Structures are given as C-alpha cells and as structure tokens.
Amino acid sequence: MRKPGQASEHSNNPRDVTPERAERVSQTVGTSVGSAAAISSVSGSALRNRAGDASARPGRSMLAEPPPRATYRLQFHKDFTFEDAIAIVPYLAQLGVSHVYASPIHKARPGSLHGYDVVDHTEINPELGGEEAFRRLSDALKEHGLGLVLDIVPNHVGVGADNGWWLSVLEWGELSPHARAFDIDWHRLGANRKLVVPFLGNRYGVVLEKGELNLSFDPEEGSFSVWHFEHRFPLCPLSYPIILDRALAASDEAVIFGDVLAASERLRVMGEESGADRRTAFPADVQLLKQELSRAVSASPALGQAVERAVSLINGAPGVPESFGTLHRLLEAQSYRLAHWRVAASDINYRRFFDINGLAGLRIEEPEVFEQVHATVFRLIREGRVNGLRIDHIDGLADPESYLRSLQSAVGPGFFILVEKILKPGEDLRPWPIAGTTGYDALNLVDGVLLNSEAAPMFERIYRQTTGVEGSYPSLLRRAKVDVLETSFVSELEALVSDLKRIADSERQTRDYTVIAIRGALREIIAGFPVYRSYIGDEEPLPEDRRLIEGAVTSAQKHSALPDRSVHEFIASALLDTKSDEAPGRPDPELVRRFRRRFQQLTGPVMAKGLEDTLFYRYARLLALNEVGGDPGRYGVTPAAFHAANVRRVQHWPHAMIATATHDTKRGEDARARLSALSQRPEQWAKALRQWRTIVSPHLATIDEVQAPDANDQFIMLQALLGSWPTELLDGESDAQAAVAFGARMEVFLVKALREAKIHTSWVNPNEAYEAAATDLMRRLTEPNSRFLCDFKPFARRLATQGMLTALARTVLKCTLPGVPDIYQGSEFWDLSLVDPDNRRPVDYVVRSQALEHDEPADRLLARWRSGHLKQRILARILSDRAAAPALYAEGDYHPLDASGPKTCHVLAFRRSNGQETLIAAVCRLLGQVISADKLSPPRAFWGATTLPVPAGRWREVTTEREVATDGSGYPTRKLFATLPIAVLRPVI
Predict the structure, then answer these.
(1) Strand pairing class (388-391; 147-152)
(2) Both 290 and 270 in a single domain?
(3) What phi, psi does 182 have (nearest 5°)?
(4) 29 with 54, same domain?
(5) What is the 3-state secondary structure (H, E, C) of 198-257?
(6) E-strand spans in 488-578?
C-alpha cells in the first residue's frame, strides 16, 4: 500500500519518477520524463513548439503507467461533497475499482449540480469542501490504493457575478486583460464593438422602465455595477463621472470632496485618450482611483450619502419613463449591450457551449489561457493527487489535436487522458495523444450486439402504424438539425454567412453568390453533416476530412432546392483549400481560417442539439437505440461486427473507457436493457400497444385541435414506463408512497421530453396546456390499481426479467472486453433512472456496502435478482479478477469464439490472452422467447447439442467459483449456462 508521496510499482502519477520508469517512458515515447517542475515551467512558446510533437502520442504500450483497472464515477455537488466521498472510499476499494472518476471539482456557480459551469479554474470548489477537504479525500484514496481520474472543462466557463474574468471583460471590454480568454467577435455586424449580453428577462426597454436594472455602489471595491436580479454588470470606470458629478452636484459639501472631484476629472480625461498603449494600461491604473474612492467614502459618511442619493435618482422611478434617461445613457456608454435572453439566438457574439448563454467559450488555444486554466490541475498532478484526466467537450475547441499535444507535453508523456468524443457508427477516433474516449462508442457497441436486429422491419411497421410518423430517419435528422439551426444557432449561422459572403466577394468567380444562396447552402451542408465535426487545420486536409466535406456537399446538393448548386462547391473549397495565398484578388487567409474554425465548432453543437436533444424525443421506434453516440436509424450490431470492432479496439485503443451509463445518458443502463429486451418480443409488444392505447384513449385531451398527448408522445411514455418501472412495484399490491414518488419522477421526465422534442411545446415557448394534458395522463397511468396497471404489470414483470438477463450479459462484457470499465455512481445495483436530473439522485451507499459484505456466489442470488445484489456480486467478482491479473485485462489480445450447434445465435463468446494468462467470456443473448417472469433460465433441452470451444483443462468460473473440466472437444452450453446466463472462465493453476 502506497503512502502519500511514495511511488508504487503501479503508480499512475507521471511525477512519481523512478529510473526504471524514466527508461521505460523514454523507450516507448522517445523522450525522457522531466523534473517535477516541468509542468509549471512550460511557456507559451513551448506549448506551440510541442504541439506538433508526435512522440507524445501514447499507443497500445505507450502509457507511462498501467491504465486504471476500473473507474467509479462520482458526481460532486453541494449535497455530495469530498467528505461524503471519503466515507465511501473503503466500499469502493472493496468493490474492486482502482480509480475514482470525479466530475469537475473547480469552483463552479453556486448550487451547481454537475460542476461543468466552472467560474474559477484556479480554485477548488468551496461548496465541495475546498482544497483541504480535497486533500483529505486524496489521502484516503491513496491509503486504500486508489487513484483519481479528474474531469476538466477547458472549452467553456460559467459566466455571471461570480466569474472574475467575465466581470473584467464587461467592465473594460477589449481593454480587459482577460478579453482574449473568451471567444468574442467584437466586430460582428451590428454589435458595434460591444459584447451582447442576453440575460434580461424581458426586452431591454421594458426591464429598464420597470426598475429591474439597479445601479449600486460597492464601497469596499469603490466600484459601480448595475444588477438585474442575480446578474451583475460592472460599469466601466471611465463612465463613473456621470454618477460622481451627479453626487457632487447634489451635495452641499461638494467643496470638501476635492479628492473625488479630482478622481472624476482624471477619469474624464482618460476617457478622451486615444493612444492604444495608454488605454491598455487603464484597467491597472484605475484600480488606484477605485481605492481612493473607497477610502473617501469610508472616511466621509456625507459623501457616502451623496453617492447613494445619486444612485437612487439615476435608478429612476417605475411609471416615469423619463426618469431612466441617465441610467440608459450610462449603460449605452459600456462595452456591452444588455439584451433580452431571446435575442441570443440571433445577435449573440460570443461562442457558447451549445446554446447556453451562461456558458461562454474559452480560447484555450491561447498559451496564456491554457496555462491559467490548467495551473491547478498541473499542480495536483505534480503532487501525485491526480492520475488521469477526462477532457470535456473536446469538439468545442478550435484545434483539439494541438490542445491535446500541448496537454500531454505539459503533464508528461504517456499520461492517462480520455476525451469526451462522440463517434458516429463507423467513425474512427483520430490518432490523438490520448488513451481513448469516455466510452459512448463502447456503450452502443455492447448494447447493439444484445439487440434483436432481425426484428427491425416489424418494429418499424409497428411504430409507423401506431404513431403515423412519416419520413425516413435521415430526413427526420436533417429536419431536426435545420430546426435547431433556425432557432438556437441563428447567430452562429449568420456569422458564417457573413464570413462566406466576404470570401465570395473577393473573387470575381464567386462574387455573384448572394447572401440568401450562401445561407441556404450552408444550412443544407450543416444539416446533412454525417458526424459531429471535421478536424481541418492549416495543413492539407486529411483524406477522412476531405471525404466528410465532399460527402456532406454532395448530400446537400442532392436535397437542395437552390437553382444554382455550385454555391455548395464554393463552400467546400473554402473549407478544404488551406493554402495561404495573399495575392490580390484572393480572400484574406485569416478570414478563411476563421470561417473554417467557426464552421467546425458549429457542426458538433448542431448535431448534439438536433440529434440527442431533439430527434431522440421525436423518433421513438425503440428508445433503447436513442442513446448518446447511437444512431436510432441503425438497428443493432451483428456478432461479426461486434468482434471485428473489438479486434480493432485492442489494436488501437485498448485502454479507452467502456461506459454503460454516464451523467449524460438518456436513461439508466438497466432501463435500456429492458427496452433492448423488448426487441425480442415484437408480436407481444404490438398486442400490448393496442390494448394499452384502448385503455388510454378516454383520458386523452384535445388542445388547439390536437390530440394531447399525441400518438408519438404516448409511444414514448409507454416505453419510458416499461424501462424505468421500479422493481419494487412490479407485483400486485404496490407501495402507494413509492408509486406516487415514481409518478412524480415520470412527470418531470415527460415535460422535459416534450420540450426537447419541440413539436407541441418547448423550453423557449412552453405550451402549458399540452404539458398539463400529458402529465395528467401520466398520473392516471401510474395510479395504484388502475385499469392500465392491471394490464401493464404482467408484461412489465416478464420484460424486467428479460432485461435483467440482458443487463447481466452487458456487465460481463463491460468488464472483460478491451478497455477500462466505468461504473456510474450507484449503478452496481439496478439502474432504472431516467434522463438528468433523475440520474443524479442520491445513492444509498449504506445498503450497497452491506450487500457487498455478504460474499455469496452469484448463482445463489439469481432467485433474488430484484434486490440488485446479483449485479453487484458479478461486478465485484470480475473486478477482483481484474485486480489479480491486471496485465491480462489491460494488454490481452482478443479472439472471437464461435459456438457450434443449433443455438449459436444465442451465444456470444471470446478469448483473451497475453501469452501467460487467459480468460474466456461467454454470455447468452436473445433469450426473450424462452424466459418468463418465473423462468429465469432456458430449459436444458433448449440448447440441444450447442457447444463452445474451450481448451482442455480445468477452469474456474469467476462469478460462481465453480470448476469446469473440459476435454477440448467442445463444452456443452447447457452445462456452461446451467446456473447463470453468463460465464467468465479462468484456468485453474
């Protein structure tokens, strides 16, 4: 066991440098490990120089330390702090994970439930316990032999009254020392070199004249700000004379306030200066004047009263519009324009995280910003308190690869880094200097192979006939992306159009392309873009990027209604022509680069909002498919494709994460497993739908001549109920209190689902009548002993049993495939949660810890599977084996095993070996037609002569500890799966 600061054989800290480790890293990545000060000494120029250092890329054997064996994701917030985590460290160690995988821990906006709205990257969140509590957690982890993988957020920050950088930019505009930290387009057409700040609850004039913009004076800072509820808008000190002159004029003692009068005059003179160098120094110079003002007010109650009187007068009087003239003049003198939040869609001129106004994009490509944002993380890595990093929203960055090379260079070669990168099916991860993704690709691969893909045509028919939804899946996706472009990202689209028009106007061959044509073609290309983004820099585009752009253009032309479709080819050339040509008659290369960067930073948010946050709630053929990284138009994965993907995985990304649930997944992993099992019962599903819709019909409403909820929304409701129905409510008489609590959760989910779909209601324009009709129906459906539940529960019980078997198979696959398995908090028991915030409910670790103390073989728990103990036991047993043989699981190869006999389609198996150790993993699949609520395994006769090729010898089944003796001629599956539908075999030595 390693003590704090002491290097261990399997340390994951790149600063724990031993001579052996330095030699190993030097051999694998071609460079030596630097001193402990290396991280802090990386300069801006060094970052640029190292960005192209290909030697920093860790490959299969290039990690400097063994990868995590397994991670456990914890979501930190004010109600689950570092002290709470310390209390469960012994449990996590006993469960068998090697690392805690922590949500962001930097200071976030007060009350944040996720931590992705960081307001200060230099401070550990005081709501979580601050630095001291974090160190205690770190020490506790080390004491139990655990490491820490930390989630960091380099793409954006939360903006508001608690973000010093943002307040500085509001105060000083382009003169702020932090202005370059944010991705702001000060020259945006119509912005007039002002930052558009869309945080008002109504139109500016209405808010102003209602008295909801309140000028106030901070005597400690010596500063003035305007407040709108919780939003603070600092005033530029160069505009203070407007207030101070009013204060002095209203005072009988103005003559004795000479210092204030002098300060006001100096500010007035500064405001008239035009020299760039001089103006750049204003923010620092004015701090002294603020301090003088603060001291003067503190020393003179009369002056303080005069300032307050002036502030009160300037704040105006509601009902007297002319009384707000001075406040309006003050605000017009600022470097920002206050605006209604609805203005953001069309006028905003700073890059956001998706369409969230309160999360502003950072220019992490600037070396100074990079260093400031990462300083605390680098210190924690040097101290050995952080052993790996997860990079949030990598696709938001201007140049993800350069960023990752800079990061890997800064923390030391071969450091364990994962990226949140959503790969579309068939898309390969770029060869970045990382260990892999956070696992959505693995999630959909594992889920897909456990789905009955042969039922796709019947499910499609059931869905279309039941709901009347029309249009192919690709056309529905394009429509959803166009919808979000035209509502949430109008401003970003218009910025691209403006750049493209300027590029077009610079050449005689393209200057006749109109703004309307450019806008239409660009919208079509983005709507049809097949993946989240491309990665074109200043060099010649890679073949895959060229294919993406050319394919999107071809698709856009095919669906375009524009009369001249050559405009699409013009846009392609702007994206693909990376030659810097400053000859007369050629477009400005910097303008072209900006367009290319902006385009690539927009396609990802449009895909995410159009697919994950819109179409997933519109297209409901089978909700198990509607998951992050998934493609609902692609129904399942064949075993052959599954095996081929894992062969590639072990060759290229053997240490990538395998996730089955995250804080962002659309439903809990076991809710998905139930819906996946639904694919095995299409006929029964069709029959149940007919019956349930008959029961539901009398309770439907009509809102504005539209059925409420409509047939598609009903389809979503019924699947959501099947997936998340609590195990404790499966039987006849239900706990009324538990039923009410579940119904309330379903109502919250339903409102979110309806608003995300944006058909009958939305977040921007809520239709409360439609939502009320839908939630009323949900209440009627979930009422204990309702007619619906009497018919629903028998079907739900059988499906829950089948979902349980699917979930067990997935648990085994997650823990034995190449990669690092991650357990989302609490999901070691059944995870039937809905989308956030439902999946962030408190976890009962006392119950989980008590269950783990009873070390029963997994097969003995099968009859009591509803408790969740069975899943936890299987997980713990395999994690224990991973701890006993880390090299096998981390570096072992992958070989598919093909069963023989009549039931081969129901067996999925593979072998892994590293030359010294071997494992065989086998799971049952697609047993829905032979399993019922009371029959937990198929009859022995079901398997017939089906066998699995297991080498001769004695084997130990990991989850049950039973021994299996084989003669090498093929082991009968009726014996292999006699007690459980899963098996993990290890040779008995």
Answers:
(1) parallel
(2) yes
(3) -105, 150
(4) yes
(5) EEECCCHHHHHHCCCCEEEEECCCCEEEEEECCEEEECCHHHHHHHHHHHHHCCCCHHHC
(6) none
Sign of the alpha-carbon dihedral angle for 532, 653, 814, 407: negative
- 337 has which bridge partners? 196
Residues 336, 197: contact at Cβ < 8 Å? yes
Residue 900, both tokens: 């023989």
Check: CB of residue 810 under 8 Å from CB of residue 675.
no
Helix (H) or strand (E) holding 197: strand 195-200
Q: Does residue 951 come out as left (phi exceeding 0), alpha (psi in the -120 to 50 range) or beta?
A: beta
Q: How many domains does the chain have?
A: 3
Q: Are residues 549 and 414 in the same domain?
A: no
- In SS3 terms, 698-718 reads as HHCEEECCEEECCHHHHHHHH
Q: Give the total residue count for the chain.
A: 989
pLDDT, residue 251, reads: 66
Does residue 557 sit within a domain? yes
In a domain, 646, yes or no: no
Q: Three-class SS of residue 801? A: helix
pTM value > 0.85: yes
Kindly state whether residue 205 falls inside one of the protein's structural domains: yes
| 967 secondary structure, DSSP code | -
CATH number at residue 273: 3.30.1590.10
Q: Which one of 563, 582, 617 terminates a domain?
A: 617
Q: What is the pLDDT of residue 677?
A: 96
Report pLDDT for 585: 66
CB atoms within 10 A of CB 653: 22
Q: In which element (H, E) is residue 410 found?
A: helix 400-411
> Within this chain, do residues 133 and 248 fall inside the same structural domain, yes or no?
no
Round to whole Å and give the CA distance between 863 and 971. 26
Residues of the chain with confidence (pLDDT) below 70: 1-61, 250-257, 274-278, 580-585, 734, 933
Instruction: Check whether residue 490 and residue 611 sit in a common domain.
Output: yes
Question: What DSSP character marks residue 184?
Answer: B
Supply the range of the domain harboring residue 556.
475-617
For residue 123, give Cα distances in angstroms to 39, 77, 83, 129, 904. 18, 15, 18, 11, 56
Q: Alpha-carbon distance 196 to 345, whole Å?
A: 11
- Pairing state of beta strands 99-102 and 147-152? parallel
Structure tokens at 112: 């944040």
| Cβ atoms of residues 217 and 224 within 8 Å | yes
Q: What is the DSSP letter of 924?
A: E
Q: What share of the chain is helix, strand, coil (3-state, %, to 5)?
A: 50, 15, 35
Assess whether 184 and 322 both reside in one domain.
Answer: yes
CA distance 92 to 88: 6
Distance CA 861, CA 852 (A): 12
DSSP 535: -
As a whole number of angstroms, the distance between CA 920 and CA 644 comes to 17
Burial class of residue 12 in the structure, from the number of CB atoms within 10 Å of its CB (0-12 exposed, 13-18 middle, 19+ buried): buried
3-class SS at 123? Answer: strand
- Same domain? For 69 and 173 the reply is no
For β-strands 195-200 and 436-437, DSSP reports them as unpaired
**Dihedral sign, CA of 843, 662, 798, 714?**
positive
Specify the 3-state DSSP secondary structure of 332.
helix
**Alpha carbon distance 380, 257 (integer Å):** 50
State both tokens at 335.
């470097």
Tokens coding 722: 């099947």
User: What is the rounded CA–CA span in Å between residue 722 and residue 792?
Assistant: 9
298 within domain boundaries: yes
CA distances in angstroms from 651 to 36, 627, 639, 727, 891, listed in the order given: 32, 26, 19, 40, 10
Asked if 324 and 347 sit in the same domain, the reply is: yes
Contact 135, 385 (CB under 8 A): yes
- Under a CB-based contact definition with an 8 Å cutoff, are residues 240 and 267 in contact? yes
8 A C-beta contact, residue 43 and residue 367: yes
Instruction: Give the CATH number, domain containing residue 145.
Output: 3.20.20.80
